[in-house]
Every structure is written in structure tokens, then in C-alpha cells.
Amino acid sequence: MQQRAGELLIEAFNTFHSRLHLLWPCEGIAMHEFRILKFLQQELDSGKTVSVSDIKNQSPVTMAAISQSLRGLESKALIERGIDSADRRKIWVNVTDEGRRVLVKIKSTNNMWLSNMLTELGTDDTEQLLRILTKLTDLMAKDTAMH
Question: In what side-by-side order are the strands of the sheet with 50-51?
């Protein structure tokens, strides 16, 4: 019984993930690029400067994957990179005006989609979903800490 429940849960997660990708408001960037762009803007908005190392430190992916994403964002003119004049090993990253425009558009589309989904779910189901997802996240964190 528990094995079947696990299989159904994984199938539900996979279906949810696939449908989430279908709803992605693209704007020419992938979700992983959006996450980097969003992180950059949040840091810059709080008055911080952001280096490639800062991006790596907040992400579970490899430096090679980060570099590839940054190249993609830069080729789309969504970010700019520059070498630190005091320490040439350090590379600073900044969001361009076009990058900010894309972020606003994607966030707006996502917020509209999420608002519609939450309305359809209703308050009780939304609260139950949050409770269960929080519990799963906590269990996963606990399991990760044990490994």
C-alpha cells in the first residue's frame, strides 16, 4: 500500500512539474535563468553588489551550469557582467533595463496564474496544500541533513 502511494505521489509531482513548464510565460528565458535573474534583482534592490560567486553560493547547481545560464542571459541582453577593478578574479553581474522588463512581465503573468489557481482551490484546500507541502519540505530537509 505504501509503495503504491509513493508511486502515485511521484507520478503526481511529475505531472504537476510538466504542466507547470507548459504554463511558463517564457519571454525567451528558461525557469533556471529566471531564478538567477530574480535573485540578482532582489540582491541589487537591497543595495548589494552581486558576483558570480554569490550566485553560485545560493544555487545547488554547478558553476558550469551557472556560467552557461549567465552566458544565455547576457546574450539576450538581460544581464551585464564586468570585472572588478580591485580584484580581477571577481566578476560582477548586473540586471539590464530589458532584464527588469522581462522580470516584471513574468512575475505579473505568474501572479495572475497563481491568483486564478488559488481562487479555484479555495481557502480550505489552499491552507491544506500549504500545510502538507511545508511538512514534506521539512521532512525532505531532515532527510537531507541525515545523508
Answer: 50-51, 91-95, 79-83
